[in-house]
Amino acid sequence: MSADFQPKPEHKFTFGLWTVGSSGRDQFATMDPTRASMSPVELVRLLAEVGAYGVNFHDNDLIPIDATPAEAEKIKKEFKAVLKETGLVVPMATTNLFSSAIFKDGAFTANDPKVRAYALQKTMRAMDLGAEFGAKVYVFWGGREGTESDATKNPMEGLKHFREALNFLCEYSNSQKYGFKFALEAKPNEPRGDIFLPTTGAMLGFIQTLDHPEMVGVNPEFAHEHMAGLNFMHAVAQAWDAGKLFHIDLNDQNYARFDQDWRFGQQSWKQAFFLVKFLEDVGYSGSRHFDAHAFRTEDYEGVKDFARGCMRSYLIFKEKARQFNADKEIQGLLAEINEGDPAMDKFFGKFTPEKAAGLKAYTFDRNAIAARGMKYEKLDQLLTELMMGVR
């Protein structure tokens, strides 16, 4: 394995305990686990061995939901010790609001007020836990915030309850001086038939209705946007443009399939390339978090191969992006494609009545403009050849 593509702390590669800790049971519980469970301490050591920077967790990834206070303290003590031993950090934390049967109708959007209150209680305790380990980003994935039938839940009421919950939790973070940045994670469906706020764009619109929109951004996930047949890089670009890219989940996915959570770069090479290029070009400085799972065929040596592969693929795409930016023919084509026209400059920028009048009076030769070849075929083929290693 080339030393050029080895992870370093400055790359900020992170994994969740639930990712490398996946037992290999499939999404629909039709197969028994194919790997024995490992403890959080063992998983941190595994991540340290493969060169990760950090580890993230749901509350119950670390502390079982029914643990006693004494058991919880013991687990936390051991986890702190292994973080110190390995040097791994905890940049992000989140709450499991989807596994327990109490969340069968959602958490913050459940029709039953007792469920909504319990979800708030559980999240506040999980925020305490995340803050104790130094997390600065707190992710919300509303995996069960939705419906199978629109007869069962009013979406306006559901959004109102979700808004109230986030407003409450923003105030709780402020009261505790945690300094959390909240990141909302969209998904179109699964495990619910339809999940509220199914795309990153929907989340960005919703954030502006909150009491503290400055505290709340998004955590886009590669696979989730692809499940809806969307362009993930475009969603990330929109989030970045809005100043709301607080975290990101990297994995891979066949379009319009069930949630596959494959190794980053396994399937969608061109989409992964442009995503990495975008993140590196704009200078994104947050974690590169891999929310993915090893194949169910693998033992824990295979899990290590999976984790190394995620990080190595990112670095390979990063190098390909550098080559793309340095390729004289590619950059020459881009310069030609995007060449300005000084005659048009007077029409752009801030509106003035004079600009509007001049533009309305200008005569465009539609046929001549339309006849221009854009050379996109050539550009895309050059990209393909660069990706395939023949340039």
Describe the 3D structure:
- By secondary structure, the protein is an alpha/beta fold.
- It has two domains: 317 residues, Alpha-Beta Barrel (TIM Barrel); 60 residues.
- 47% of the residues lie in helices and 9% in strands.
- It contains 16 helices and ten strands.
- The chain has an eight-stranded parallel β-sheet.
- Strand 9, helix 10 and strand 10 form a beta-alpha-beta unit.
- The longest helix is centred in the C-terminal third of the chain and has 27 residues.
- It is globular.
- The mean pLDDT is 96.
Domain tally = 2
What is the multimeric organization of the chains shown? single chain
* Topology as a string of helices (H) and strands (E): EHHEHHEHEEHEEHEHHEHEHHHHHH
**Which parts are unreliable, with pLDDT below 50 for 5 consecutive residues or more?**
none
- CATH 2nd-level architecture of the largest domain: Alpha-Beta Barrel
Main beta sheet = 8 strands, parallel
* N→C terminal distance: 21 Å
* CATH H-level homologous superfamily name of the largest domain: Divalent-metal-dependent TIM barrel enzymes
Strand order of the largest sheet: 8-6-4-3-2-1-10-9
